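REVIEWER CHECKLIST
Item 1: Sequence provided? yes
Item 2: Single chain? yes
Item 3: Sequence as submitted:
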Amino acid sequence: MALKDLFLNRRFVFLWLAQAASGLGSTFAAFSLSWLLYEMTGSKMAMGSIWVIFMVPSIIVQMFAGPFLDRWDRKKIMIFSEWLRAAAFIFPAIMIPMNQLEAWHLYGVAIAIGVAQPLFYPALMAYTADILPKEKLMKGNSLLEGTGQLMMLLGPALGGLLISVFGTELVLFILIFSLGTAGFLLMMNPSIQKKQSEKKESWYVQFKEGLQFYRIYPMLLGVGIMMMIINFCTGAAQPMFLPYITDDLGGTAFQYGLFSSFFSFGMVAGSLLTGFLDEPKNRKRAMIGSLFINGVLFIGLAWTPYIWLALVISFGQGLFVIIFNINNTTLYQRRVPDHLRGRVFSVRVLLAQAGIPFGAGLGSLFAEWYSVPILFMVLGCIIVCTTVVCSLHPTFNSLNDQTHVDVQLEKV
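Item 4: Structure as written out by the authors:
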């Protein structure tokens, strides 16, 4: 199935354009929020704490809203998420020219983003599966992921350049416009009408049903636990990239933007590679192997004395991360029945994100006590050891099983 066939689907085209606008706005949001806070405080602890402030409401919303995503209008959920994030940045955009912006204002923005963002991705995954047939999902996911990452490729370098020349205010206004535009593009798509059961189930019953799906597929639970550990490491590393580039490697705002852009560049390359190649015959090797290489690259990042080499490593990390993400998303979409997608995808994201706030808090403490390079070394070793254990565990052999999916789905 060629990628060009996806553009004959009007619903997918509007979803794709919205993903592009959302990707640019989200990238500018993360970049500007981090830069403003570190410029104001110069503290690694502050960088870690704002990630905790973001992730705690994100996990809470994910847990309580997830079961209802199958009942609510998924299109409206995505629109609400985009517009709430856009509205959250209006306040700092106004306060900066007045020289009234304080650090606690940015924590408030992080809370608002934490409430809105976890609603978008599960709804996007479920909506994509609604509008595309199963044989087009791999290509569709590749294009959506690749487009989002293309915006993230352009965003950090462009954001760093704009901040250096014009200041942060322009970046804030662009991201507000981008997220707002994404919401309007999503309005062009119809809502997907779902069959509603006569009995309205409680949150607990629906959430429990999402959890019970993992009893049928223990392999999916294993992947979720593996991702919890990997994202613990990611949560510890992500807030430290800015001080790593500016302090340890002596870089500038533009070079920090390039570092983030090269990661996204790798993700774009991985998306294109995944989209044009056939699906891997050995999905286990592709998924776990990608994460293993990512851990090795983390160790390499710890020993890197040059910015140009850090950029190359960042590219490689993005390349292998997106290969895992696309295969993992497609795996879920094919195994989860339509009426369970919202709640199962939410449990999946909840499992994956649970380790991030702990990683952000502990990672910032570790970096303050020791150094960012030593932190990266420890995180890389954790990722390598985790993937080796998973590759040897028999549960993960089911990643290659494609023969019994439809039969088991009928029993759910």
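Item 5: Key structural point noted by reviewer: The first helix runs from residue 10 to 41.
Item 6: Recommendation: ____
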